[in-house]
TrEMBL record:
This is Sec39 domain-containing protein. Its main location: endoplasmic reticulum. GO terms for biological process: protein transport; retrograde vesicle-mediated transport, Golgi to endoplasmic reticulum. It comes from Anguilla anguilla (European freshwater eel). The lineage of its organism: Eukaryota, Metazoa, Chordata, Craniata, Vertebrata. Residues 43-261 form the Sec39 domain. It is found in: Endoplasmic reticulum.
Amino acid sequence: MTGSCGLLCVRALREVGGGAGRSGRGRVPVRGAARAAPLPPADPPVSLLTDWYLSRAEDIDSCSRQVDCALSLVRLGKEREVPGLEVLGDDLVTLETLVYEASCELSLTLRDLRQLRDIDKLRLLMKNSPAERYVKNAYQWMVPFLHRCESQDAGSADALLREYLVTLAKEDLTLPLKIFQHSKPDCQQKIIGDHDQLMSMALECVYSCERDDQLSLCYDVLECLPQRGFGTETSLTRTLHDQVDKLEKHLSVAEVLEKHGLQKPISYVRNSQSSREERPTS
């Protein structure tokens, strides 16, 4: 009797726990047993989403030339906190200005613009600006562009504006002078807000000018610079004021030469003085 009960127990255990034999036949399902839930699909990488916005913005621009629609799409992505769209958004704002306001070539695409250096973008913005609207356009186009560049790369605004002005000054001081005149210490809204940067850029522009017929413009640039003692002074400020004093002397020498029919660029006067000071005494 005991043996029969043991056989029944073994058989019951087999049926409930593992079924009969290796094939698993005769397995008794357990009621109420939950099946494993399927895993949710993996989220795509964030970079894929960013790339999608980039490609769609480029497609909208190249196919329809509707920059404002491409910009609206990117702004929507930024509102939804899609990362990596800041530079793309800035480029679209620049392209929007170029296309709708700055009379740029209509063939310029977003893809073309993104391949340009920032200095080339700045030159494009101001390229077709007439002289009578140059200052207004500088406030509306150039200054916001420099702010966008600065937000992406600290210190880039100063470097870009310096390169832009110095390149212009080599051939003509007229446009750089307009920028300096609207950066004077008494201006309410300055294009160049830092006095040290103003003096540094002005000095470099005057000495970079290769023309010998713009002495009056050089004096006008000098009039835009702050007087010694104005504002907070640092060691750099004092050094720059010393250089401005030297510039004033160089302008006086150039004026004397001009009166005697010997027109020379200001850099000639500075280089002549430097050569004389470096010449060894016998």
